[in-house]
What we know:
- There is one protein chain.
- The protein is an alpha/beta fold and about 290 residues long.
- The chain has one domain (about 10-280): Metal-dependent hydrolases (TIM Barrel).
- The chain contains eleven helices and ten strands.
- The strands form two sheets. The chain has an eight-stranded parallel sheet. Strands 3-4 form a two-stranded antiparallel sheet.
- β3 (about 60) and β4 form a beta hairpin.
Amino acid sequence: MTARAYCDCHVNIWNEEHVLPLYTEQLARVRAGAMAPKSDADTLHAEMAHVEKAIVFALRYGDSIGIESDDETTAAAVAKYPEKFVGFAYVDPRRADCMELLVHAVEDLKLKGVKFGPIYNGVALSDPRLVPVYEYLQKNNIPLTMHMGTTFARNAPIDMGRPLHVEPIAQKYPDLVMVMAHMGHPWYEECIVVSRKQPNVFCEISALSYRPWQYYNILIAAQEYRITDKIFFGTDFPFARVDESVDGLLTINDQVEGTRLPRVSEETMQRILESNPFTHWWHGDNPLA
Length: 289
């Protein structure tokens, strides 16, 4: 695979000391053999060799997945590989110092966006603890990427991953760019219709290529609802790799060869691969400045 002018908008970073026993205990419900042993800065840089830019963020999923990283890890990776990485902060609204950490991440560490997993932290998007987060992000032109969709973790309330919950927040904060990761699987139709209705809501296809039938139906629905211009490329590394994510998209129609089923168009595939969040997720400012 040769270098392409596309961005991986969903890359997880952690060091070995951030991995808790709970993580290994739950891997049976993740793809067998698909997990990279590491997801530190050097590992990510090698994996992203054929990606122009990678948006990276730490996870604070200690009590659900078993990964408890921090924004300093993200900032250190950006400092080491500034030509490759763009860092996002992580917010956990359960913490009393949530806003203090967020302000530090943005104003001191110079991280350019925010990641939040409502299903992983057990905090609904409508929770009042998130109000100062939304207000700060909207005021400071900072996009919010959210894990929307299900997960394998037992301690993760499924309903909090439903994309329908994004719409009221998008309406209340119309200048806050919100990005639904994983197309909200398996509720991808909710993700698609919310994104179509709300100008400030986008979505991305990370970690979908290894469920090809679901992935095919997602992309067909996105074409029919005409939202393919709001879908961005991502991997969710280390849960999926760059090459398999690209190949999974480009070969999505193989499974329907010989049938009369509709095809994912070449235009859709190329539009996703060439998507550039830096021209859509921020309001005019250059996030790389």
